[in-house]
Structure formats: C-alpha cells, structure tokens
Write a structure and sequence with these properties.
The chain is mostly helical and about 270 residues long. It has one domain (about 1-90, about 125-270). Helices cover about 90% and strands about 0% of the residues. The protein contains nine helices and no strands. The chain has helices at about 1-30, 35-55, 65-100, 105-120, 125-150, 155-180, 185-215, 215-240, 245-270.
Length: about 270
C-alpha cells in the first residue's frame, strides 16, 4: 500500500504538473509567450535562490563544498551547451560539403543555412540544461515525497500536492524554452513529461534507499539550482533584452517579479503545511 501511494503521488506531482503547465502555457496563456518567458525567468531564479539553495545550505555540509558544486554545475551546463551547438553546426557543415562542388559557395550556403536552421529548428541554448536540471530536481522531489509518505501517509499526500503546485511554473518555463527551440509543442511536452517521470524513479529509489541517499540530497539541490540559474541568465534573460516601449518594459518587469512572487508564495504555503 505504501509503495502504491508513493508511485501515485510521484506520478501526480511529476507528470501532472507538466500537463497542467502545458494547459496554461500552450492553451490559456499561449498568446502571452514573451510574458511567459519573463514569468519563467523569475520563477527559475526564485526557485534557485529562495528555495533550493537555502534548503541545501541548511544541511551539515560545508558551504565551501556546496558553492564548489554550484560553480561546477554552471560550468558543466555551459560546456554541455557548447558541445551541443558544436555538434549541431558540424552536422550542417558535412551536409553542405556533400551537396555542392563550389567550396566558396558551399561555405556561404552553409553559413546562411546553419544560421537559419539554428534559429528555426536547432536546439536552443539551455534546452539540455533544462532537461538535465529538471530530471535532477524531479529525482530529488521523488525522494522527498517518498520520505514524507514513509513518515506519514497524510504528510505524503500533502507533500505530493505541494510539489505539483511548486513545479507548475518551472515546467512552464521548461516548455517555453524547448518550444522555442524545436517549434514542436508535442516534442516539448514529451521531453518535459519524461523528465517529470523521473520523480517516480526518485520515489522508488527513496522507498528502498531513503536513509542512504538523504545525505546526498543537498548536492542534488545545488546541481538543480545551477541548471535553473544558468537557463534563466544564459537563455531566457537574453531573449528579454530588447529595446521596448516603456509600457512593454514595465509589463516585462511585472511578469518577472510575478514569477518570483508565485514561487515564494507556493513555497511559503508548502512550508506552512
């Protein structure tokens, strides 16, 4: 019965939050894409700085080790993006060399095609960081939910609902990033849903090894924080750095702050429970 409750709770929190985010981001709020980017940037930064990092630093692990983990995480996601972009450009270079006999024209065609393809169909910087960070974060959420269920069934149900509410703004940001990179709502939804399903994997792992893994949870939280910080600052914020009218700029800042407030409000309600 306990294992069934953990699986049900983690599926609800992990995948349920993704589909709720898709309903809001692709349906009711689809016309407000730029506002959703601002909301997502605020939500991701607030989650990292106001929730995950404070929780990690409440552990007995030395602050130096956690800051080192944060730095390594940021560099890792930067290198992951560089490797992805290099691989993407390398594939186009091979294609251009195969389909033309004029080296100079091939170079020009390749540059134009690669530039167009990168913006229209290529991977956005931060896409793999989103999925990796989301998976790590969801794995940690699964362990937390399993721990709550093991302590008390009622507490476990509350924890699952709190995680669901807490993950919706994050997944809205993830879907916006992946949607802008692939132009496919379905693929973005599938990828984020798979990342959300890792919550159940974390729950199952926590059910068997909760005591052994609890000591590593702060490191998981810091790695997740590094991914959210990187995505917000390297991918979302640059898309918002445009010359806008005063009214548009005010709206952008309001939605950015709204994302932060939303996360802090949900976090405070969850901590209250």
């Amino acid at each position: 019965m306990l294992l069934i409750a953990i699986v049900a709770g983690t599926l609800l929190a992990g995948i349920g939050s993704v589909w709720l985010a898709a309903l809001l981001g692709f349906g009711l709020l689809a016309r407000y894409t730029q506002h959703m980017l601002s909301l997502a940037a605020g939500a991701l930064m607030a989650t990292a700085f106001m929730n995950l990092l404070p929780e990690a630093f409440e552990s007995s692990i030395e602050a130096h080790d956690l800051f080192l983990t944060l730095l390594v995480g940021l560099v890792f996601f930067f290198l992951l993006d560089k490797a992805e972009l290099w691989h993407h450009g390398h594939e186009h270079h091979q294609d251009a060399g195969t389909h033309t006999h004029n080296a100079h024209n091939a170079h020009n065609v390749h540059n134009a095609h690669d530039h167009h393809d990168h913006h229209a169909h290529g991977p956005q910087p931060g896409s793999w960081a989103v999925l990796t960070g989301d998976s790590v974060h969801c794995f940690g959420d699964g362990i937390l939910i399993a721990s709550a269920f093991i302590a008390n069934m009622h507490l476990g149900a509350i924890a699952a609902l709190a995680v669901l509410a807490h993950e919706v703004p994050h997944h809205m940001g993830d879907l916006m990033v992946l949607r802008s990179g692939s132009n496919s709502k379905r693929m973005a939804l599938v990828k984020v849903s798979l990342a959300g399903a890792v919550t159940t994997l974390g729950g199952l792992t926590g059910y068997w090894l909760v005591d052994q893994l609890r000591g590593y949870l702060p490191y998981f939280l810091v790695i997740a924080s590094s991914s959210f910080i990187y995505v917000a600052l390297a991918d979302l914020i640059p898309q918002l750095q445009k010359r806008l009218t005063l009214a548009q700029t005010v709206a952008q800042v309001v939605w950015l702050l709204l994302g932060m407030v939303l996360v802090m409000l949900v976090s405070s309600l969850a901590h209250g429970h």
